[in-house]
Every structure is written in structure tokens, then in C-alpha cells.
Amino acid sequence: MTGSKTSSVSDMETVRLKNAELKGCVAAPVSKSYAHRAEICSFLAGTELKSTALSDDIKATKNALKALRENKEIIDCGESGSTLRFLIPIAAALDKAVTFTGKAGLSERPLTEYLRLLPEHGVKCEYNGALPFSISGRLMPGKYEIMGDISSQFISGLMFALPLLDNDSEIILLTPLQSKPYADMTVKTLSHFGITINENNNGYYIKGNQTYINSDYVPEGDWSQAAFFLAGGALTGDVTVSGLNMNSLQGDREIVNILRLFGADITVSENSVRVKKSSLVGIETDVSNTPDLAPVIAVLAAFAKGKTVIRGGERLRFKESDRISSVVNNLKKMGVNAVETPCGMEINGGCPHGALLDGYNDHRIVMAFSIAAAAAEGETEITEPFSVNKSYPEFFSDYLSSGGNADVISNR
User: Fold this and answer.
1) For the segment 212-268, what is each residue's pLDDT rounded down to a tens digit?
2) Where are the alpha helices (DSSP H) in 174-283?
3) pTM of this prediction?
4) Active-site annotation holds for 292
5) Residue 138 CB coordination number (10 Å)
6) Is 409 in contact with 37 (CB distance < 8 Å)?
């Protein structure tokens, strides 16, 4: 497979994968979540981050920040939900009259909380249920009452913006905050750039008139991406992922505990995790704080003995694809007994076989089922393989170097 291609693949290309034993050491890529946050904090400190991840989502944030710096009226967020939701309140705090655009998939990501909140605090919004999203008027300090069970990205966006205002503000959570680890990551990153966020029982208190300062902060390794190769070790061989922070605030560090629940042979060292092939058993797990792990958990479940129940995944419906339907549909094609539930899925493990699968232009679906293909009998094809560029451009290079069998083919 050609690892150098960076553009989005057309729907006429698939990746052909065969059964393989994944072995060796993979270096975790830079955390995409931390990289987004560090890029934004550097921009607000008046500098540019020297080195970070080069995924399509991070490029979207870099390009959007450049457009803001140059006072452009159009801010293109590509396919990155983080870029869009983080930058809307930041632009408003900077008193920018701009229009946010993006690719088709991003257009459908919910923005209802901002549509309600921002006009209450001095910002005029123009939005018809899909991008573009236009704003004008300077964001005003005050009390921001917001739902916590839609996306933590709204909370993080406000955390970046509110310290810039000329008075203090509060974020008051009307419902429990799901994916709280992501908000914790925002608080931690902000602290590296001189910004203080005070958490309380109802949400967060944020002093105004704060100043972002320059930092040599370097984002840590990405647990979300590490999870794919750790699962590959559990299903096929012996894989070590290095460059990981065992004390990370990243919620997806939970993959270590999940693998243990499945019964995986796992060894944790100072900055690496090693997983060997072993017999797995079904589990019950809640992914409300770790939604990005759902596809790889489902793949592990497909090969585990017994039933796995995944709950807390309501927001999986609103990712790059409807990840509940995407996962279940592909598992069924591989001969696995899987059913959707309102908040997740139920999977009865078996002996998955190769099949023609839909990548749904969703990076996490493609990566998860590439791992499934390595463990499945026969040959698998997955459409839109280069959607992995959204978060992990080196995925297939690392897949091949660890013993995977993958080759992009054209179906024209």
C-alpha cells in the first residue's frame, strides 16, 4: 500500500486486506485531541506551534486559525467537528464577523447549543440547520447554561473563549457532562498557556481578562489511535505501542482496562503497552466517556466468546458516520451476530470472515475493521481507506510495518 498518498480517496478505491499476524512495536502518533487544543492556545498566545500532528483534522485547525489571523471572512473547517465547535466562540470573543463552512459530513453535526447560547451573549447567528454558520458581534461575559450530554466540544470551545472577555463568566451544566475527560484535557492544556479554569459542582468558573502566554508544550501520544494496534495484538499476535502517558487525562486510556476485562494478555510499562494474542470473553461496557473506542471494542467483541453489550453511545449517531449502524452493518457482513440498540449495540462473538465492507468515509470505521480483517478468515475489502488521513495518516504504514497485509486497489 502506498503510504504517501494524502488526499481523500474516491469511492472507486478500496483497501484489500488478508489474514495476518500483527507483531512488533508501533509508536503512538501525537494526540489529535491535544494537538487541536495546543494549536488554538498557541494562536491565542500570538505564536504558532512548532510541531504537531499532520492529520487532516489538524490541518483544518491550522488553516482555520490562519484565516482568522488574516481576518478572512470565510473559515473552512474541512471535516473537523473540533475545529468548528472550538473556533465559533473564539471568533466571537475576538469580535470577528465570519462565516464557518466545511465539507458535507461536517455540515450535519449539531450546533444547537451555540445557536441558543451565543445570541443570549451578544452574538448574532445565521444558521439554517446545516453549514454555513455565520456570526457577528462580540461575545459578552456572563452565565452560560448549557447541556452537557450533547458534546463536550461546546464546553471546550467556551473555555478557550471566555478567559478573553473583560469580565468573569460561568459555564453552568444543565445535564451531566459526557466525555468529561475531553473537557479535562482542555483545562490541562490551557494551564500550560497561562489560563486558569476553576471547576465547581455545577460546571466551571472562568475569570476574565486572562492572557495566553507562549509555551513549548508538546502534545503526548494518542490513546485513541493506540487502541487499534493494541486490539490487533490481542486478536492476532504480539504488539507493543510506545510513546504513551500512563497518567494521561485522555479518556481512551481506558482501553487498557477494557482489554483486561476481555481477558487479553496485557503488560503495561512506563510509557508503553504490550498485548499478546489470547482468548477473549464478552463484556459489558459504557462508552459515554470514551465514544471513540466503540468501533474497536466492537471488533474485539466480534472475536470474543459470548455476548458483549456496549452502552452509553447515543452520540455515536452523530460522528463522521452513524457509528452504531456502521459498525453493526459491517459486523453482519463478516458473519457476526450483532444488533443495534438505542444507545449502543449487542454483539455475540464468533468466527468473523472476510467481506466487502463499507468504510463510510469514517476514519475510525476503516481502522477498526482493518484490525478485524487481520484476524478474520479470508479476504476483506474496505471502501474509502484514505479517510484515515482525518486523524492518523500513517495508519496503513504502521499496519504494514507491523506485519499487516494491505493493498489499495482501484475498482474503476
Assistant:
1) 999 999 899 999 999 999 999 999 999 999 999 999 999 999 999 999 999 999 999
2) 180-192, 223-236, 255-262
3) 0.88
4) yes
5) 15
6) no
